[in-house]
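Sequence, please.
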């Protein structure tokens, strides 16, 4: 299999499809290939949407591919569509891979619909922030698998997560791919096996698509590098306790001994995130400065929320998201500072990544906050406090958008590029899962992923909670 050629077959894509458009496309594929494709319902979302899986092929092993595990991350739905079409049209590829594929285009349709306002303007940072929605970690499909232990317990599994669990219980997969994307960062991966060859080859994929590898901060505090920009999957009990949520899909996949990968791709790309040259700024100074800026933003939004909290009458997912995000970003900031370690020179990539972490926090939180206030105004129940905060925070939002756009003035990434990286990662992982990855070792459950403090491999996280 020629991975580069497969990646080049990803077409130009102008926009992200709506939930309805995703299902229409996959229904058309199933109609065109009735002897190859089966579409079935595996569950129901919290708001009554059908959760559907597309099954292709009849190989001896099973692979599960999860699109949209976070609702603001639509790249994976496109990747599922491209992969499904390729498997239907290429008999030789399907036979070579030897899997029965179970493809879920959108596992959180309720949340995805709340992001559709920016899907037709994928490069517009203002539109993205104005229509952004990401739920409380305890309401995220990716992070609500059950956890039980002496110190921490989570059993509030979502219907969508339960549907994934039933599917995995049924097919006992050898491979699980959870498809994620972020904002301004390079490409990076999580893998649940210490497989140096797989990690090396994953690290080559971004270059084939013209995207930079991520050499900024690890997304999750304490992440351990297997190879550049390829991290060992962290134990879900640790991450769940930090986020106030459950385990991840990797933890459930481990029940079946499955290879689990997460390709994280950007919506915007900037070569500074791959620049490992020194800046002359001390790393601990960079971390402290970044933490102070994030706390300033969080304090301002905490104060604004306190001003309007008692007058809100419309209970929305935006309010739950704002409250949870304020709490979670503070927790992550504390972890970030605790892992700063010994001082050294910060890199260009790390400095760039810390600035992006601030832009991410401010625009995600404030964009969602404004949606919360707009819902109150639309209901006709807005108090003077709500209207005042809407005006003041709207001006702040305009300023913060301007600062973010000035810091990263380049064009948005062509959508086909992150799709191609995710496609390449799935196909590469399939070849490793099929051959048993004999030189790899599974990362045991409960293992600490931290290593020596202060090294770039274990520095702090610009996590997107």
């Amino acid at each position: 299999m020629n991975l580069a050629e497969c990646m080049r077959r990803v077409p130009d894509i102008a926009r992200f499809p709506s939930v309805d458009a995703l299902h229409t496309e996959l229904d058309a594929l199933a109609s065109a290939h009735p002897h190859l494709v089966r579409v079935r319902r595996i569950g129901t979302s919290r708001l009554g949407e059908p959760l559907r899986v597309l099954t292709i092929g009849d190989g001896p092993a099973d692979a599960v591919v999860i699109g949209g595990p976070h609702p603001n991350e639509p790249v994976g739905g496109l990747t599922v569509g491209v992969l499904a079409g390729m498997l239907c049209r290429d008999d030789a590829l399907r036979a070579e891979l030897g899997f029965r594929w179970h493809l879920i285009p959108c596992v959180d349709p309720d949340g995805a619909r709340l992001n559709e306002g920016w899907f037709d303007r994928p490069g517009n940072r203002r539109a993205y922030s104005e229509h952004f929605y990401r739920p409380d970690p305890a309401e995220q499909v990716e992070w609500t698998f059950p956890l039980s232990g002496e110190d921490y317990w989570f059993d509030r599994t979502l219907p969508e997560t339960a549907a994934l669990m039933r599917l995995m219980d049924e097919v006992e997969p050898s491979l699980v791919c959870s498809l994620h994307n972020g904002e301004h960062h390079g490409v990076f991966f999580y893998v649940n096996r210490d497989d140096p060859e797989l990690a090396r080859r994953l690290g080559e994929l971004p270059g084939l698509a013209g995207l930079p590898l991520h050499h900024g901060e690890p997304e999750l505090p304490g992440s351990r590098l297997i190879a550049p920009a390829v991290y060992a999957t962290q134990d879900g009990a640790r991450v769940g306790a930090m986020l106030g949520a459950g385990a991840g899909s990797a933890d459930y996949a481990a029940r079946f001994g499955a290879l689990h990968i997460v390709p994280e791709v950007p919506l915007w790309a900037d070569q500074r995130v791959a620049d490992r040259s020194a800046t002359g700024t001390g790393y601990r100074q960079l971390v402290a400065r970044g933490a102070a800026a994030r706390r300033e933003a969080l304090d301002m939004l905490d104060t604004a929320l306190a001003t309007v909290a008692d007058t809100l009458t419309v209970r929305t997912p935006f309010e739950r998201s704002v409250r949870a995000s304020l709490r979670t970003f503070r927790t992550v900031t504390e972890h970030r500072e605790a892992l700063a370690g010994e001082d050294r020179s910060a890199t260009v990539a790390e400095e760039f990544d810390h600035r992006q972490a601030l832009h991410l926090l401010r625009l995600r939180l404030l964009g969602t906050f404004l949606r919360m206030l707009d819902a109150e105004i639309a209901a006709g129940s807005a108090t003077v406090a709500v209207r005042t905060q809407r005006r003041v925070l709207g001006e702040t939002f305009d300023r913060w958008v301007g600062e973010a756009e000035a810091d990263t003035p380049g064009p948005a990434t062509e959508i086909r590029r992150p799709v191609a990286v995710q496609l390449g990662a799935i196909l590469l992982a399939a070849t490793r899962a099929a051959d048993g990855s004999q030189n790899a070792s599974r990362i045991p459950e409960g293992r600490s992923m931290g290593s020596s403090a202060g090294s770039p491999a274990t520095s702090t996280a610009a996590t997107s909670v």
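The domain at 277-407 is CATH 1.20.120 (Four Helix Bundle (Hemerythrin (Met), subunit A)).
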